[in-house]
Known about the structure:
Layout: E1 2-9, E2 27-33, H1 45-55, E3 76-78, E4 81-85, H2 90-108, E5 115-119, E6 126-132, H3 136-153, H4 163-173, H5 182-190, H6 194-206
Antiparallel strand pairs: 1-2, 2-6, 3-4, 5-6
Helix pairs in contact: 2-3, 2-4, 4-6, 5-6
Amino acid sequence: MHIISIRHGRFPQIRMLNHRFRENARHLMVTLDVEGYSPPVTRDFFSIYHSLTRVFPTLARHQCCEQWENTPLFLQETDGVSIKTVGEVADIAHLVEHVIVDLVVAVSSTRTCSGVTCGHRQPENRFDLFIECEDVRLGVFAANFAVHLIRRLFAKARISGRYAKVVEAARFFHGRPNGRDPQQTIISRLGYPPGLARMAANHLRVFGFFEDYDHEHD
Ligand SMILES: [Zn+2]
Protein backbone atom coordinates (compact mmCIF):
# COMPACT_ATOMS: atom_id res chain seq x y z
CA MET A 1 0.00 0.00 0.00
CA HIS A 2 1.42 3.38 -0.86
CA ILE A 3 0.52 7.02 -1.26
CA ILE A 4 0.49 8.28 -4.86
CA SER A 5 0.04 11.96 -4.01
CA ILE A 6 -1.06 14.36 -1.31
CA ARG A 7 -2.75 17.66 -2.08
CA HIS A 8 -4.12 20.32 0.22
CA GLY A 9 -6.70 22.97 -0.50
CA ARG A 10 -10.37 23.49 -1.21
CA PHE A 11 -12.25 20.87 -3.22
CA PRO A 12 -15.81 22.16 -3.75
CA GLN A 13 -16.71 19.09 -5.80
CA ILE A 14 -16.63 16.84 -2.73
CA ARG A 15 -18.69 19.02 -0.40
CA MET A 16 -21.85 17.07 -1.20
CA LEU A 17 -20.26 13.74 -0.29
CA ASN A 18 -20.45 14.19 3.45
CA HIS A 19 -23.13 16.38 5.02
CA ARG A 20 -20.82 16.97 8.01
CA PHE A 21 -18.21 18.78 5.91
CA ARG A 22 -17.88 22.36 7.13
CA GLU A 23 -18.43 25.23 4.74
CA ASN A 24 -15.11 26.60 3.54
CA ALA A 25 -12.97 24.01 5.29
CA ARG A 26 -9.73 23.01 3.62
CA HIS A 27 -9.11 19.36 2.90
CA LEU A 28 -6.26 17.01 2.58
CA MET A 29 -6.63 14.87 -0.55
CA VAL A 30 -4.69 11.62 -0.33
CA THR A 31 -4.55 9.37 -3.39
CA LEU A 32 -3.74 5.88 -2.23
CA ASP A 33 -3.12 2.49 -3.83
CA VAL A 34 -4.09 -0.39 -1.56
CA GLU A 35 -1.74 -3.27 -2.28
CA GLY A 36 -0.53 -6.20 -0.27
CA TYR A 37 -3.81 -6.75 1.57
CA SER A 38 -5.16 -10.23 0.89
CA PRO A 39 -6.67 -12.02 3.87
CA PRO A 40 -6.35 -14.74 5.01
CA VAL A 41 -2.69 -14.53 3.84
CA THR A 42 -2.54 -11.14 5.56
CA ARG A 43 -4.48 -10.22 8.67
CA ASP A 44 -8.03 -9.12 8.02
CA PHE A 45 -9.75 -5.77 8.50
CA PHE A 46 -11.16 -6.54 11.95
CA SER A 47 -7.84 -7.74 13.33
CA ILE A 48 -6.16 -4.58 11.99
CA TYR A 49 -8.93 -2.37 13.36
CA HIS A 50 -8.71 -3.84 16.87
CA SER A 51 -4.91 -3.53 16.91
CA LEU A 52 -5.21 0.14 15.94
CA THR A 53 -7.63 0.91 18.76
CA ARG A 54 -4.83 0.19 21.25
CA VAL A 55 -2.89 3.19 19.92
CA PHE A 56 -5.96 5.18 18.86
CA PRO A 57 -8.65 4.45 21.47
CA THR A 58 -10.88 7.23 20.17
CA LEU A 59 -11.21 5.36 16.85
CA ALA A 60 -13.86 3.26 18.57
CA ARG A 61 -16.01 6.37 19.06
CA HIS A 62 -16.02 7.56 15.45
CA GLN A 63 -19.30 8.09 13.71
CA CYS A 64 -19.07 6.51 10.31
CA CYS A 65 -20.69 7.80 7.16
CA GLU A 66 -24.38 7.09 6.56
CA GLN A 67 -23.73 5.79 3.10
CA TRP A 68 -21.18 5.91 0.34
CA GLU A 69 -22.25 8.02 -2.54
CA ASN A 70 -22.38 6.42 -5.96
CA THR A 71 -21.58 2.98 -4.68
CA PRO A 72 -23.79 -0.05 -5.01
CA LEU A 73 -21.85 -1.73 -2.20
CA PHE A 74 -23.81 -2.58 0.89
CA LEU A 75 -22.30 -1.12 4.06
CA GLN A 76 -22.28 -3.53 6.94
CA GLU A 77 -22.15 -2.71 10.62
CA THR A 78 -20.34 -4.98 13.06
CA ASP A 79 -20.81 -4.96 16.84
CA GLY A 80 -17.91 -3.28 18.61
CA VAL A 81 -16.52 -1.78 15.37
CA SER A 82 -17.19 1.90 14.68
CA ILE A 83 -16.33 1.68 10.98
CA LYS A 84 -18.71 0.20 8.44
CA THR A 85 -17.36 -2.30 5.94
CA VAL A 86 -18.04 -3.70 2.50
CA GLY A 87 -15.71 -6.71 2.65
CA GLU A 88 -13.29 -5.44 0.00
CA VAL A 89 -9.98 -3.55 -0.22
CA ALA A 90 -12.03 -0.35 0.03
CA ASP A 91 -12.30 -1.14 3.75
CA ILE A 92 -8.57 -0.56 4.15
CA ALA A 93 -8.67 2.81 2.35
CA HIS A 94 -11.64 3.74 4.53
CA LEU A 95 -9.70 2.70 7.65
CA VAL A 96 -6.77 4.91 6.58
CA GLU A 97 -9.25 7.80 6.25
CA HIS A 98 -10.54 7.22 9.80
CA VAL A 99 -7.03 7.01 11.29
CA ILE A 100 -6.09 10.29 9.57
CA VAL A 101 -9.26 11.88 11.02
CA ASP A 102 -8.34 10.53 14.45
CA LEU A 103 -4.81 11.95 14.18
CA VAL A 104 -6.02 15.37 13.04
CA VAL A 105 -8.36 15.55 16.05
CA ALA A 106 -5.77 14.19 18.51
CA VAL A 107 -2.95 16.48 17.40
CA SER A 108 -4.81 19.71 16.69
CA SER A 109 -7.58 19.39 19.30
CA THR A 110 -10.11 20.46 16.69
CA ARG A 111 -13.60 19.56 17.85
CA THR A 112 -14.78 17.79 14.74
CA CYS A 113 -13.21 16.46 11.59
CA SER A 114 -14.92 14.62 8.76
CA GLY A 115 -13.72 12.66 5.78
CA VAL A 116 -14.81 10.66 2.80
CA THR A 117 -13.30 7.80 0.80
CA CYS A 118 -13.88 7.68 -2.97
CA GLY A 119 -12.89 4.73 -5.12
CA HIS A 120 -11.47 5.02 -8.63
CA ARG A 121 -13.17 2.95 -11.27
CA GLN A 122 -9.74 2.09 -12.69
CA PRO A 123 -7.54 0.89 -11.12
CA GLU A 124 -9.96 -0.60 -8.64
CA ASN A 125 -7.45 -0.51 -5.79
CA ARG A 126 -6.94 3.29 -6.05
CA PHE A 127 -8.76 5.65 -3.69
CA ASP A 128 -9.02 9.37 -3.03
CA LEU A 129 -9.43 10.22 0.64
CA PHE A 130 -10.59 13.69 1.60
CA ILE A 131 -10.15 14.80 5.20
CA GLU A 132 -10.89 18.19 6.73
CA CYS A 133 -7.53 19.60 7.79
CA GLU A 134 -6.36 23.19 7.95
CA ASP A 135 -2.70 22.48 8.71
CA VAL A 136 -0.87 20.91 5.78
CA ARG A 137 2.10 19.61 7.76
CA LEU A 138 -0.23 17.86 10.20
CA GLY A 139 -2.14 16.40 7.27
CA VAL A 140 0.94 15.08 5.49
CA PHE A 141 2.23 13.57 8.74
CA ALA A 142 -1.14 11.98 9.55
CA ALA A 143 -1.45 10.42 6.08
CA ASN A 144 2.08 8.99 6.09
CA PHE A 145 1.80 7.74 9.68
CA ALA A 146 -1.62 6.12 9.14
CA VAL A 147 -0.46 4.28 6.01
CA HIS A 148 2.76 3.16 7.72
CA LEU A 149 0.93 1.69 10.74
CA ILE A 150 -1.82 -0.03 8.78
CA ARG A 151 0.66 -1.50 6.32
CA ARG A 152 2.62 -2.96 9.25
CA LEU A 153 -0.56 -4.51 10.58
CA PHE A 154 -1.12 -6.46 7.37
CA ALA A 155 1.51 -8.85 8.73
CA LYS A 156 1.65 -8.21 12.48
CA ALA A 157 -0.86 -8.86 15.23
CA ARG A 158 -0.07 -5.69 17.13
CA ILE A 159 1.79 -2.43 17.00
CA SER A 160 3.85 -0.98 19.78
CA GLY A 161 2.15 1.27 22.31
CA ARG A 162 5.15 3.59 21.81
CA TYR A 163 3.40 4.95 18.74
CA ALA A 164 1.01 6.77 21.07
CA LYS A 165 4.07 8.75 22.20
CA VAL A 166 4.65 9.89 18.59
CA VAL A 167 1.10 11.29 18.59
CA GLU A 168 1.74 13.01 21.92
CA ALA A 169 4.95 14.58 20.58
CA ALA A 170 3.11 15.76 17.44
CA ARG A 171 0.50 17.39 19.69
CA PHE A 172 3.29 19.18 21.57
CA PHE A 173 4.88 20.58 18.37
CA HIS A 174 1.58 21.50 16.72
CA GLY A 175 1.41 25.30 16.42
CA ARG A 176 4.95 25.64 17.83
CA PRO A 177 8.24 26.11 16.01
CA ASN A 178 10.20 22.87 15.57
CA GLY A 179 13.29 24.27 17.24
CA ARG A 180 16.81 23.28 16.33
CA ASP A 181 16.83 19.91 18.08
CA PRO A 182 13.36 18.37 18.36
CA GLN A 183 14.72 15.24 20.06
CA GLN A 184 16.24 17.33 22.86
CA THR A 185 13.06 19.37 23.13
CA ILE A 186 11.04 16.17 23.56
CA ILE A 187 13.39 15.04 26.34
CA SER A 188 13.30 18.34 28.21
CA ARG A 189 9.66 19.30 27.67
CA LEU A 190 7.90 15.94 27.55
CA GLY A 191 10.27 13.99 29.78
CA TYR A 192 10.72 11.05 27.41
CA PRO A 193 13.78 8.86 27.93
CA PRO A 194 16.40 9.44 25.17
CA GLY A 195 15.58 6.30 23.15
CA LEU A 196 11.88 7.07 23.05
CA ALA A 197 12.57 10.73 22.23
CA ARG A 198 14.77 9.67 19.30
CA MET A 199 12.09 7.30 18.03
CA ALA A 200 9.38 9.98 18.30
CA ALA A 201 11.52 12.70 16.65
CA ASN A 202 12.54 10.30 13.84
CA HIS A 203 8.94 9.36 13.10
CA LEU A 204 7.85 12.98 13.03
CA ARG A 205 10.72 13.82 10.67
CA VAL A 206 10.36 10.82 8.36
CA PHE A 207 6.60 11.37 8.00
CA GLY A 208 6.96 15.04 7.13
CA PHE A 209 5.97 16.82 10.33
CA PHE A 210 9.05 19.06 10.31
CA GLU A 211 8.85 20.00 6.63
CA ASP A 212 8.46 23.62 5.68
CA TYR A 213 5.28 24.08 3.64
CA ASP A 214 5.35 27.88 3.61
CA HIS A 215 5.46 27.93 -0.17
CA GLU A 216 2.35 25.79 -0.42
CA HIS A 217 -0.72 27.63 -1.63
CA ASP A 218 -4.17 26.66 -2.72
ZN1 LIG B 1 -16.55 6.03 7.66
